[in-house]
Amino acid sequence: MQDLLTQEFYGNTGKEYLIMLGVIVLGLLLVKLFKRLILKRISKLVSKSSTIIDDFIVESIGNYVLPVVYFTIIYAGLKTLAWPDKILSILEVVYVVIITYYAIRLVSSIILMLLQTYIRRQEGGEEKVKQMGGVILIINVLIWITGLIFMLGNLGYDVSAIIAGMGIGGIAIALAAQNIIGDLFNYFVIFFDRPFEVGDFLVIGDKNGIVDKIGIKTTRIKTLSGEQLVMANSDMTSSRIHNYKKMQRRRIVFSVGVTYETPVDLVKKIPKILKDIVQSEKRVDFDRAHFKAFGDSSLDFEIVYIINDADFNTYIDIQQDFNFQIYQKFDELDISIAFPTRTLYLRNENGMKLNLNMGENREEKALKSTDVN
């Protein structure tokens, strides 16, 4: 046994190997005890607090700091022995890579935690956090690229040439993918400016639908007819968008026309009739009802009211009820609702003039003849 302890193996005695293993095992056990006895209790205490920062700190220690301590103990233990230069170089590279990996993950977690905390404080913050997939991806890519460059610099590589190459390559990529980069920047505009969000009902030109997903390059909209409409983010930000989810109230303007044969006394009563019909609905605020104009084939009345609800189905139900009441009330008072008409004057070969009065919404036509003398 004594010979085994004093005998050298690859430049180190058996005793030195045993001491190294003992130091590593003892260090790992101490860290393990710290995690189970101390960190676990701290985690239970901070879970009762109202903030998430202390939870994040404890979780980060367990996920990123302790693994680094584990590898540091192993690396420090191995360094106590005499190794060939090549093995020492390999150990240093492995250790730097491991430290860089956990450092990048820690920095990424801190930045994302701060960003999510900031966004959660905004209106509809939880919904916005769910839409951060593209932002998280871009931030992680930037953090990893930066971390890898620092790692290569620590390993002795000339990173200036790499950065210069990335700059030239970035310019070439930017020129070749201008539209993609434009959509990417417009994604950030949509994310931070929030002109619309997932679930909003939009009208864009002659297209309309509910926002289904906001991606890095495109926004997907589910139209009312069922198909998916895919639009580039640059098209979305450059368009005039009507966002109906942001609407809290609806101002409704509609009109009704009666025939010119309606007596004057009934014409004067119609605004009051329309006002009473609208005011009978408690969910709306009456604005006005007026005899607006002499139309081509009707006396036109305009009614304005406000619905204290943005739901479209609620609006159309109320409007339908108003239409029923107007139709019924006019029928009771023998007031005729106008329809488009046209009068044509024709002259026949016998010198007679024919007056042709056509109703576009009737099947029968009235034909009158008058003497021109």
Question: What does this protein look like?
Answer:
This protein has four domains: 177 residues; 53 residues, SH3 type barrels (Roll); 83 residues, Alpha-Beta Plaits; 30 residues, no CATH class. Helix 2 runs antiparallel to helix 3, helix 4 packs antiparallel against helix 6 and helix 10 packs antiparallel against helix 11. The chain is 55% helix and 21% strand. It has a five-stranded antiparallel sheet. It is built from eleven helices and 13 strands. The protein is an alpha+beta fold and 373 residues long. The protein starts with a helix and ends with a strand.
Keywords:
single chain; 373 residues; SH3 type barrels; Alpha-Beta Plaits; 5-stranded antiparallel sheet; 3-stranded antiparallel sheet; disordered C terminus
